[in-house]
Each structure stands twice: as structure tokens, then as C-alpha cells.
């Protein structure tokens, strides 16, 4: 069931959980020139993702991480019609080789936009963290597996995949931004650990997109 969209946010939400400081103009300008790759290996400037249209941009950990997989499985449930109605793009950016994009989309059922930043240039420029902030106690509403079961599933996927790799730096954390059009930064959150995701309905609401009722959706966890 959809909720009514909130008015679009037009400034940094400074009191949001885990919300960092607004990127310095120079940082965003530098990041905007970095290249991301699509599932076919085509390179495009990061700014092309939000320059002409507001975009929810979600940087994730490695594609092998179970928390990343389960978060993106819930992102897949956002109807394209909701995004079109609000004129907002929904974009996931990982940090693996582009070869992993299509298999990961097939695994999670995600059909919105996905790109990769293989050298983690944008992650670094925007100050996204490496390592776990163990002093931060958070729980993502989108992660269904416990740490032991999730880690076993991640290892199994690595072992049975075409190449045994972590599909990105395993220590890299992600973050969430709402950007555009132009250089406008509406929201920024830097994840402190693997469970510190911004709830999907939070970023949808802040971007003026209808929210989703996840509670009545059956959860199917594949390995």
C-alpha cells in the first residue's frame, strides 16, 4: 500500500540518523567528474546521473555482502511508476567490476539503474568510511539474515560464482545521497557499518516519492 508523498526536501537534513555534513562544493565537483560504469562497461560521468533530474543515489558495500544483497532486494520492490510520478531516479552504485552488475541484478530482482565505481574514487572523494564502526548500534529494517547465516550465504555465493572474489573491497562502507538537479544536495548519510543503511522509505519520502509497505511482503532469501 502506498503512502502519500511528502513535499520534496530542498536542504540538507542535518538531524537525520547518521547524517554527515554536506559535502564541500569542491568535493562534489571533484566527484562529479569521476566515471562510473554500467552493466556493459560503458563509462559515464557521475554528474550525468543527477545533473538534469533529482536522483536517489545509494552507494553499497561489495555485491557479495549479504546486507547489501538484502537491502537491494527491498529496493527492487519500489515501483517504477512511483519514481516516474515524482520525476526521481533511483540509482545503486557498487564498487566491483562492471561484470558483476547483471548477475547481481538477476539475483536481487533489481530493475532500476545500477553502476559501479571500481576504483572507489567517488567513495573516497565523498568521505565514505572503511571498516566497521563497532561502537554504533544500529539495525537495518531491510536485513533479514543474522550475521552468521548471512556470512555463510555470502561465502557460498563466492565459492560457487564464476570467480572467487569479494566483488568489491570488503571493508568499504556505503552511503545515501539525494542529489540534483544540478549541484543541489538534499540529503547525505554515510554508513558507519554494514547495518547502518538509511531505511528505504526515509529516502523515498525525503525525495518526494511514495513510500512502500514492506511489512506485508513475503521475504525470500536466496543463496
Explain what the structure shows.
The chain is α/β, with parallel strands linked by helices. Helix content is 27%, strand content 15%. It contains 7 helices and 7 strands; from the N terminus they run αβββααβαβααββα. The strands form 2 sheets. A 5-stranded mixed β-sheet has the order 5-4-3-6-7. Strands 1-2 form a two-stranded antiparallel ribbon. The chain is globular, with a radius of gyration of 16 Å. The model is unreliable at 5-18 and 219-223 (pLDDT under 50).
Descriptive terms for the model:
223 residues; alpha/beta; 15% strand; disordered C terminus
Which percent range describes the beta-strand content? 15-25%
Strand order of the largest sheet: 5-4-3-6-7
Helix content, binned percent: 25-40%
Oligomerization status of the protein chains: single chain
Structural class: alpha/beta
Entry summary:
The protein is α/β, with parallel strands linked by helices and 223 residues long. It has 7 helices and 7 strands; from the N terminus they run αβββααβαβααββα. Helix 4 links the parallel strand 4 and strand 5 (113-116).
List the helices and strands and how they pair.
Layout: H1 25-33, E1 35-37, E2 43-45, E3 54-59, H2 66-75, H3 80-86, E4 88-94, H4 101-108, E5 113-116, H5 121-125, H6 147-160, E6 175-179, E7 185-190, H7 200-206
Parallel strand pairs: 3-4, 4-5
Antiparallel strand pairs: 1-2, 3-6, 6-7
Amino acid at each position: 500500500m502506498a503512502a502519500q508523498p511528502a513535499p520534496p526536501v530542498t536542504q540538507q537534513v542535518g538531524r537525520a540518523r547518521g547524517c554527515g555534513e554536506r559535502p564541500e562544493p569542491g568535493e562534489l565537483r571533484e566527484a562529479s567528474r569521476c566515471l562510473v560504469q554500467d552493466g556493459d562497461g560503458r563509462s559515464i560521468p557521475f554528474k550525468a546521473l543527477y545533473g538534469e533530474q533529482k536522483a536517489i543515489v545509494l552507494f553499497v558495500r561489495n555485491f557479495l555482502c549479504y546486507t547489501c544483497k538484502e537491502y537491494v532486494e527491498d529496493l527492487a520492490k519500489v515501483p517504477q511508476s512511483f519514481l516516474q510520478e515524482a520525476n526521481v531516479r533511483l540509482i545503486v552504485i557498487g564498487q566491483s567490476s562492471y561484470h558483476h552488475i547483471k548477475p547481481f541484478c538477476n539475483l536481487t530482482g533489481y530493475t532500476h539503474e545500477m553502476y559501479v565505481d571500481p576504483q572507489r574514487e567517488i567513495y573516497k572523494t565523498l568521505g565514505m568510511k572503511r571498516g566497521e564502526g563497532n561502537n554504533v548500534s544500529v539495525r537495518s529494517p531491510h536485513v533479514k539474515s543474522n550475521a552468521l547465516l548471512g556470512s555463510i550465504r555470502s561465502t557460498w555465493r563466492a565459492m560457487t560464482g564464476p570467480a572467487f572474489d569479494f566483488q568489491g573491497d570488503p571493508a568499504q562502507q556505503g552511503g545515501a545521497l539525494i542529489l540534483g538537479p544540478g549541484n543541489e544536495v538534499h540529503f547525505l548519510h554515510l554508513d558507519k557499518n554494514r547495518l547502518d543503511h538509511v531505511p528505504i522509505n526515509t529516502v523515498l519520502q525525503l525525495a518526494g516519492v511514495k513510500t512502500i509497505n514492506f511489512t506485508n511482503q513475503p521475504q525470500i532469501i536466496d543463496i
